[in-house]
Specification:
The chain is mainly α. Helices cover about 70% and strands about 0% of the residues. It is built from eleven helices and no strands. The longest helix has about 30 residues. It is elongated, with a radius of gyration of 26 Å. The model has no long low-confidence stretch (mean pLDDT about 85).
């Protein structure tokens, strides 16, 4: 039998209204960033003897040798700071920069060579999350090595910190620059030989010619002017100001240069990640 629906039944029938489920706004840095950042930190911490302890010991050897050889002959800041004390901030920053670069660049090139990069590109991870995870992991490694260098040099040559803000600002800015540059180098490189070009012809020369072992005021006028075109000089000089309150140029100028390169390199790296340059091949 066909049931007949009366008008009264239609009136009494309850109306079901579909209520839309509110969507939670997705965080800028979600679980993908957390997982990749944890992986980057765990990657270097699992072999801390190579990635943290070894650079600290190498830097300590630099300090002991150079301070012993040049302690009585090299004068910096008109003798207001001993040469051994002068060396410590430069060596700390050098270790921070080199290890921050090494972390992101080696991680990415290894993922390429082992063909495991696809496991990062396939999941729904944004370019910003990949960028922040790699650079963040590089900053953590660089700062861990820098802290280790400072602590191990204290028994030999105690170095006080007069301006902690400047120390933190330049350590964070410098490690961010080198982590980003390492990310760019890792994306561009197709094999370890390409990465060695960055390390041997860009990173090492700019680091050693940035005033780590000397004040630029001890150089001839031409080389002093040329040193001002080296961005590594501003990172190290500003970092040294945080220890002694003395520097070759204004710390505000150094901070401006550092922030400029942070923004510039971040734009380049983000563009390479967004377009999949040399990644989706």
């Amino acid at each position: 039998m066909n049931s007949v629906v009366t008008e009264a039944d239609q009136v009494d029938a309850p109306k079901v209204v579909a209520t839309p489920i509110p969507r939670q706004p997705s965080p800028i840095l979600g679980p993908g960033f957390q997982a990749l950042f944890y992986k980057e930190c765990l990657r270097f911490w699992k072999v801390a003897a190579q990635t943290v302890v070894a650079p600290v010991v190498t830097t300590l050897l630099y300090l002991l040798i150079f301070s012993h050889v040049l302690q009585g002959t090299a004068k910096v800041f008109d003798g207001r700071v001993s040469y051994g004390e002068f060396l410590i901030p430069g060596l700390i920053m050098m270790a921070v920069l080199q290890n921050a670069f090494a972390n992101s660049s080696s991680s990415l090139i290894q993922s390429k060579m082992m063909r495991s990069l696809i496991f990062i590109l396939l999941p729904p991870i944004t370019s910003l999350e990949i960028f922040c995870a790699y650079v963040g992991g590089s900053m953590v490694r660089g700062l861990c090595v820098g802290l280790g260098v400072w602590l191990i040099t204290l028994p030999f040559i105690p170095a006080s910190v007069l301006h902690p803000f400047w120390v933190i600002a330049f350590a964070a800015g410098g490690s961010a620059i080198m982590g980003t540059l390492g990310l760019i180098a890792g994306i561009w490189s197709e094999k370890f030989d390409h990465l060695a070009l960055f390390q041997n012809f860009i990173i090492m020369p700019l680091t050693f010619l940035s005033g780590v072992f000397y004040s630029i005021h001890s150089l001839p006028a031409f080389w002093q002017g040329l040193s001002h075109f080296n961005p590594f000089f501003y990172m190290i000089d500003g970092f040294r100001f945080g220890f002694f309150g003395l520097s070759d140029v204004s710390p505000w100028l150094s901070l401006s240069v550092v922030m400029f390169f942070v923004v510039l390199l971040s734009i380049v790296a983000m563009r390479m990640l967004a377009t999949g340059y040399k990644l989706r091949q």
